């Protein structure tokens, strides 16, 4: 349980640190140096949305499969 909690906290700290670093960088730079951001947050948001949709589809298929077994 401690390992799982440590992994979750580590992932959240990593993403939070990248977001904060990008926020400070984006506030100080012009459009020509904006490419120095660590993460392209638009792409990250799109991939998160795709992952959520894929997980939801898989979950729905699993639930329907279990219902057919009853």
Describe what this molecule looks like in 3D.
By secondary structure, the protein is mostly helical. The mean pLDDT is 82. The chain starts with a helix and ends with a helix. The protein is built from two helices and no strands.
Keywords:
70 residues; mainly alpha; elongated
In brief, what are we looking at here?
By secondary structure, the protein is mainly α.
Residue share in helix: over 70%
Could you tell me how far the N terminus lies from the C terminus, measured between alpha carbons in angstroms?
33 Å
Q: How many whole angstroms does the radius of gyration measure?
A: 19 Å
Q: What fraction of residues sit in β-strands? A: under 5%
Question: Which structural category do the helix and sheet elements fall into?
Answer: mainly alpha
**Largest β-sheet summary:** none
Number of strands: 0
Mean pLDDT: 82
Number of helices: 2
- Gross morphology is elongated
Q: How do the SSEs run, as a string of H and E?
A: HH
The residue ranges in which pLDDT falls below 50 over 5 or more consecutive positions are none
Secondary structure layout:
Layout: H1 2-28, H2 41-69
